[in-house]
Design goal:
With 196 residues, the protein is of the alpha/beta class. The protein is 31% helix and 28% strand. The chain is built from six helices and seven strands; from the N terminus they run αβαβββαβαβαβα. Strands 2-3-4-1-5-6-7 form a seven-stranded mixed β-sheet, with helices on both faces. The radius of gyration is 18 Å and the shape is globular.
Amino acid sequence: MAGSDALATGTAAPAAPDTVKILIAGGFGVGKTTMVGSVSEITPLRTEEPLTVAGLGVDDLAGIEEKRATTVAMDFGRITISDELVLYLFGTPGQQRFWFMWNDLAVGALGAVVLIDVRRPESSFAAVDFFERRRIPFVVAVNGFDGRHPYPAEDIRESLALPADVPVVLCDARRRESSRDVLIALLDLLIAAAVD
């Protein structure tokens, strides 16, 4: 055992890294699973299941008719920032019938990314409200499907009635660098809040 070896030689066992829990949340089909997968250093844990006939009339597929699978519990990914800091990413399910899980997933979260699809902004109103009510710091990430962003960040801020201190970041959840930049914006927000 490594701990026994450390005691026998008189050396200290390496300290466990600090961990930060971050939620990736938003409406149904906005790209949460894609974002976790694009930025995680490990193969992400996914709880995706095929969409079935039972979901017809329950899950709103307007604008996302090509969607074939959905997250039924959560996605999980990890990013090691340094030997001292590791980020754990938890992607929430998007369908309204699974929102009850958000409360459990939010326990211990230091911050969140609210991912929105400008084609269906109403699908993310509940996520913004969820984090505002719980006073969990969050950034809004606007997922540009097909690499397009038809609206500037300030227009998105105004349409969601976001306060000035909530960052709005344009992104492409398929691209690692873009998802990384969203997480950096969130970490900057958390660090600024800790300093104040």
